[in-house]
């Protein structure tokens, strides 16, 4: 069992507050680390500020080299990273491996984008007032960045803050989830060896009170938070003058139409609904199926859900394992019970066993039930028939959230209608809302967030344009 | 009856070679003009060269003002331009009006694009060799431009050369078709009053021999030709060091699938097939209809074709009128007869009356027939059933041309397959290949041409990038 | 004297709270209008929401038409708009005319940009996870917009909120300054006649309490505020989930180097320093001149400042007139007196006469004085020598603000250094920080604001990206 | 001594026509290879055509992987590639190493650009004719590419054809110089192992007659030629319907102004003038120095030129070695002698020794001399004083060529004037025209060429846009 030190101000540090990280599957302690205190955070902030100028002046070849060095180190230590991530999060091994692959890709994209930072060159002589003048717009790093990342993708969601920060030339202080800090701290060890200016990246697990300094301290110029809506929107209020990016959750909907190819639709919905026990922002929570194919879909879907292999996350063929903690399993049980009490039918699943919650399918739900209106963040899916496509779109739009939506269809009209009318950040045709690759703009509207990630988009947020108006 | 002078070197000139322009519908002389001789052309070239520097230095607000002034003058004299165009070309009034509207739009787009000329701003420090260096790329006018435009859109196809030339700061010498030079010469009168440097635009009708100087003279830096493939490809060979843009013809195909909405498909195919007697580069020449709906489509299509109102082009409700000259009507008769002799069936039309050729639909054709393999440039359409969508795509791809194609479908798969596999410059979903708006990239591949028009794209051809490498 | 009604929900309305608008120069009442109450505002919001869908669906040709119609109406009524603006603001006629010209240009740009809304088309197959997938990103209007504009450019700063809102398809409720609401309300009369959906634009003068609903009401999705830093930053805190754009003030600096061309530098600094009595966000407040040319510059500058013609704003040759109100004149007197008490020397001016404050030049100031550290928003300029260019850049960077800066130089090294190191939104070479044209990105960093205006940039803020992930 | 086989149609082949490759420095045979005959070429073309579809369909992650694999193999075998290149070309080792580094960078850029192929997404509803329509523009590979590369950068100039071809999905047949084919053939061995479809890249040394098929065969859709102007322009004539890109030579000029930093200017001019004996398209051939600093510059320049270390190219500290062959050395001697006979003065050098020609500086030349007006392609530099900056720009512009130019200055006015008025593809501030990095647009105007290289720009030439017009 390893102890991972905090990485702050370019140093690996201990604090007085040691914490244990446990494997949610079996409650074994798999590692230790420390909570950073005010002093350590202050040190990290000061060091970060002191390297701002150096970061701003890194040539692109140097940033490329650093970022690719990290990507390559992740490749070289792929199995270790995968296993560590798997253990701290109970994310089944195959999904853990997928996440490390994505982290590698995120760093690679950032390496490439560091050579393609936003830039504009514009004419200003559109009126006589600008005669013989032109403008070139360079984007400069915004300054010190505060990043807060959640437990469910402990690696790649942290990387979506760290990698663009390096690419844009901003120092960053990252607070990982205290449940799953180890893979990020291991990443810090890799970063430390790359020639990046010391202190440009700090990774500090913190309690909520200390971590709140990331929100309120005015030396941070941007707060980028991935987590729950309630917490996120409060942060926006308290953030002072800094920019705020919020990547929050949702209750993503899927529409399966008559023209859909049924086999792949079922298969993808299974993954979208139950991968990592639904502890995914773009978990396929609500599935609406055209009434003419509803029974067929439901039957296959339930049959497939039942086939999922439950077990130890480190087994290569495990499909579903424990939730992150018992509290969450209990909460889901409550929501399911409440739905059932209110008329919902359980088609499969529905009873937790300790921290494990089985793949659960509900039907005959209605929009006020928590399993519909809130972010379930568990392996629970509602399945309902619809009549007209416009209705299905309306159902998906119900509620406060708007992250992504999936539409299985072969009709151009439906694709167009969905794109135009689904109130979300992403409409995924013939796939689940859970689809995400790391170069696409990703983020929600309505209560699901503010701003977009996807390396290029994060970089844009992390930089400020400055125009040089000059003669020609 | 008006006499229109040549517009060369900023002056309105006569030459010794007066020509008459006739209305193809009734052979009445509707106006006179002159053929420019070598001397006039030489004068125009020299003057154009002498204003190159002034043109290059026009601020964008000035170019915008000039181009919008032209657009507004066309609006203010809309009816006169429409009528003149109608008379010289026998293009039915409603289509003539449509063309003047498009010319207005083309100038408007050029006005706007003159403020958005291509520009790049790039980092050069991707390796140490470029440390502390960056590049800004401005595009400079390529120099003197030679434009040659055809009879079928005498106004807007000339405008697609003149407007981007002004926007990019290049002087241009334009040779209009000697059949239909009047609307372009009337445009010259408008241009003359705008404050554009005199000599920046010349419009000179010429015989082929004199006109060939536009191809061979090395002072021209770009030749932009719209016309027939045979002539165009020879020009490319003879053009010396200049750049060459060729907008040639085709034998455009249409696919009507099972999922197509039949009413609009028929209606649009009628327009695509018979508007201006098919004397259109993107005339819908070959229609392939899924066998399950073939009879239904054919019946409606023929019925609609027969309803087209034949008559004097100046009547507002005339749909179809004379061809540009009898030679062309005769040529088409020959091709139709040849096809019939080879097994084709005439579903409607097929017999010319003087310069008039009626809407004609053939079936049971095969790909070697001229009506299939060559550009028919007349009101002749072939109608054939197909079995599989892949076959239809293959049929459309047959032959030397590749301009645009239309696909009527509501299936995403077919749209994707068509886009990926149709060897053309443009795939038009749920419309005929005849669809064109003036800001879209337009042009063919295979024997149909080289390069793209659509104002922004023409401007790109008319300019040369120059990078400034500087320290940061 | 005219009474201008409120323009709310597509209607011209009165309220019970009539207010008088006076000419600050002579305190004459020049017009009347009304303060909107909660009820009127609520009506405007509801109507705006009800036309959201219609606004979202306006084709670009329609938006272009509407916006150009407004621009043309401003041209057609140029003198009336100029005079009204002049009277309500005491802005000298030539500057008032300049502002109306800019408003015309802002609408024209918006018209053009409405056809060029942001759009992306990206490959998603960067990893196997995205095989055969691509993304198209369309930007949809964010929804209802709240705009708050200040007294100093009552027309063009309102237009910078209204025009991009129309271009992006968002309804907008605008609160103009209650000191200068008339030109904006006259603009509303123009807008009303254009075919824009009724209720898409409302212009409602309001007291601060009612106006605060623009900040707090959650139906607004974006707040765009131009005004003072203190008010702006508080709004950010209270804005809830909506996006916030702040265009605040500054204490802009100018550097005049040895290599500067002296004549134009002096002339431009006079305009930058005293136009509209310095009531301009990018007023050239602090001028740093290289010591070797300091005396020469100071002499000429003072001499020119004294030549400025004081008088009635409606006289065509008036250079400087009254301030917006006496309170501001008094405030400036206090700041100047305080500076003098603290050691500053008055080189010219310095004594107010009623609402008039004369062109004033101070020297021997230091950075803690209010005339240096705060936004003076009056005709007061500090003039100080510097030794090394790096020092001058440091001086300009001092303090909380960072809007724009001017640098008069002919040296590439200095231009590069300034661009890289001046902490501002815009570095203007060989011109004053006061330079702005309406298509350039404009806005501040540090305490000077959040986000950028300049039509294209505002549009970007007013829209949300939505990606369509589809097969290829 | 190794024998390198031809790489055609995915196979390593011999022909009957074996050739020897010699080291120009000592005439030792360093390797053997074969001239491809008509049959081998035909085989390569057919195979290339047969993999066109597969190439077109490669996902971007696959192209990235292939291209990075090549880049990494070059890194892994860096010394061998460097040495082979050095031996076949007599390019001094340090410059050979630089070229291999650039080839690695060119492949890396191509890998990244393969994920960023040109793409457009545009609105088409700018008029009512396009209501509810939009366009997405994908770029498809143009088809089979013919590449011809020269002896002077045998590796990187071949790579500038091969790498973008792979990135854009086009098969390519490359003819390397028969003097220096070995490094390219060694590259072929690397390419063969990457998983690229067999036959997508062929590298075939050919005699001129066989090689001419690359120009005339209509199955090639693009000819990209780097070489001499006379040959290139003739190719344009004979190329039929294919697109043609020409990267030809020049007689690049440099301007050294009064404000230039003298030390670096001299140092860079030495490299620009004599690196690889001036056998570089952007060799700094003509240096114009402001008269006030002419003597100082001339003295230092000559002194530095004399310090260059002559010798065996494989020695790490060799600065200059033999020319590619004696014929070239003789030609240069003739040109120098002719210039001297016509009044030029030799400031240093001027006498060849076998294939070696020493660093030579001439003065008192005039523009008709071959050493001024033609591409000298040898270690000969002319050095002349100028009076006014405008004159210097005029001198640089004299003659038929326009590739790149260098300007050493610290004055903004001169930079602007140079950028606006130098008739070249690239203006390099404070560096020699010899500056090139592989992502910048590179190419000439006037007789220096047609089109641009620099990976992204080559890719654009290698692809054809196709618009999909669809409903929204």
CATH architecture of the largest domain in chain A: 3-Layer(aba) Sandwich
Oligomeric grouping of the chains: homotetramer
CATH class placement of the largest domain in chain A: Alpha Beta
Structural class of chain A: alpha/beta
- Helix count of chain A? 17
Radius of gyration of chain A: 23 Å
Query: Largest sheet of chain A, if any?
Result: 7 strands, mixed
User: How many structural domains are formed by the residues of chain A?
Assistant: 2
Write the CATH homologous superfamily of the largest domain in chain A.
Aldehyde Dehydrogenase, Chain A, domain 1
Order of strands across the main sheet of chain A = 15-16-17-14-13-19-20
CATH topology name of the largest domain in chain A: Aldehyde Dehydrogenase, Chain A, domain 1
Largest interchain contact: A-C, 51 and 51 residues
Helix fraction of chain A?
Answer: 25-40%
Describe this protein's structure.
Four copies of one chain form a homotetramer. With 472 residues, chain A is an alpha/beta fold. Chain A folds into two domains: 2-248 and 448-471, Aldehyde Dehydrogenase, Chain A, domain 1 (3-Layer(aba) Sandwich); 253-437, Aldehyde Dehydrogenase, Chain A, domain 2 (3-Layer(aba) Sandwich), CATH 3.40.309. Chain A has helices at residues 38-50, 52-56, 60-76, 78-89, 93-113, 156-168, 182-192, 208-211, 213-216, 229-238, 262-274, 291-307, 326-341, 370-373, 389-397, 412-421, 455-461, and strands at residues 2-3, 6-8, 11-13, 18-22, 29-34, 119-123, 133-141, 145-148, 172-175, 201-203, 222-226, 243-247, 253-256, 286-290, 345-348, 360-363, 380-386, 401-402, 404-408, 426-429, 445-446, 449-450, 463-471. The longest helix of chain A is centred in the N-terminal third of the chain and has 21 residues, at 93-113. Chain A is globular, with a radius of gyration of 23 Å. At the A-C interface, helix 5, strand 7, helix 10, strand 20 and strand 23 of A face helix 5, strand 7, helix 10, strand 20 and strand 23 of C.
